[in-house]
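User: I'm writing a tutorial on reading structure tokens. Could you give me a worked example: one chain, its sequence, then its tokens, then a sentence or two explaining what the tokens reveal?
Assistant: Sure. Here is the example chain.
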Amino acid sequence: MSAPEPNAQQPTPAPPPEAGPPSPPKSIAQAPPPPPLLQPLPILSDTSCPHLEAALDQIVAQYETVVTWAARVSLRKPGDLAAEPPTKRRRVQHPSCVKCGFSISSPWLCLECSLSACWSGPTSHILAHLREAGHNFAVEARTGSLWCNACETIILSRFLDNTHVTSQRAVEEAATVFHVDGKKRREPYRGIAPGQPQPAGESVPCSFRKGLLNLGNTCYMNSVLQSLLANPLLKNNMLADRHNAKACGTTLCIPCEFDKLFAELYEQSTEAAIAPATMLQSLWHISREVNGYGQHDAHEAFIALINGMHLHWRGSLPNSNACQCVIHTLFDGQLQSEVRCCNCNRGGRTVDPVLDLSLSIDASISTLDGCLKRYTRVEKLDARTCPDCNTLAEATRQLSIRRLPSVLYIQLKRFEQRNSEKTVKIETPIRFPSVLDMQSYVTKHDGTIDDETHSPLNTGPHKMYEYDLAAVICHEGSLDTGHYIAFTRTNDEWYRYDDDKCAISSAVCASIC
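And here are its predicted structure tokens:
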């Protein structure tokens, strides 16, 4: 996959109304000029979406216009509206959905016609518009999340992320008045130089890091919740108001509970631990495997939680084969299994959807890379009758990742059966990288991977296959009893969550290879 030509000379987009959704250029000709932007970055091919790669030159200007408008609106103070004349006061109201008419604080906008619509509730009006109009891209104004209707997923692009950050920074710099020598006047923005003395400031509590109370052997649920709450992609989806607990009439609803948890997580008035009682009740309601106050498996809790999210959204879809829920947007991948006859070298392939990878370990494996190589190695199967050559011959089977998900969830199966029916926990320590390169385990263009070198022949940017380590869940104890803790990364710092206790920790760094 070749990179598009840099677009360093792209025209400056026309500015939108200061507090309304972007409109066609003819309606905003009298708007004030936008704040000066930083030097634009070259457009790079850093996404696995072919539709975005082909249309990036056409949509980047409108994308920048939308996120710049959202940044301006976010800087408005509550008293700004009352101080403005009535003619302008009407323009600063939140935009409304063109389908249902409700006012929305975080709108989705079509990048091809500037239509604004909502995504909350069981139906998505922005998706309905994209299907009816044949348009492909929509952006959530506040977070800058980009939806590709052809791929039916939120698209990740480092270039658009940089555009979002650059636009926000430019708006903040233009709106900031610095005080110099006791006089109020505009000064150019200056970064903080290393070692430069800074005036003393007031400490602001970081309330987005809160523990979860143990409600009775619920550490298995708390550790999974902390890893999901720390996921930036899930956070962007939930904060984009794709599900509103106040507008949902469903009882014991997992998406509602996540919406409430994110609201409590960002509540600035308290740093107290959160009691996820209704989340626990909802989890018990949808899963018998983790029902009751006994000790349960964290992986079973993870599966139950994501199934609860998926089932709520799937029930509202007109096409049951095209799931657009948050879970499939983040975790959905494809696993290929190829079986070949050793006599005629022909065979068949099957492709199955997967939401996680379960890797076996043994005493001879000490790294995550070793677990993945074992998972994708060629296995010999017993002799069978080949349907192609009609002979009894041995066969081989090999697994490979047909399509990588946006978020890769890996479970290490730390149990094995010994002495007939006795199951024991495997205590072998496994080291893992801070950046995991999955390119060696992805299906090649001919449908296989090289079992000797694990060298795939896929084309495309190398960054497409890399995953940054975001969270680790650990179990302390034996197979039947123990305790779960979670480690999550925020701004390059690791935090240890032991139920209601949260602290900076470097324990994960000791396991990174």
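What the tokens reveal: The mean pLDDT is 76. The CA atoms of residues 187 and 247 lie 45 Å apart.
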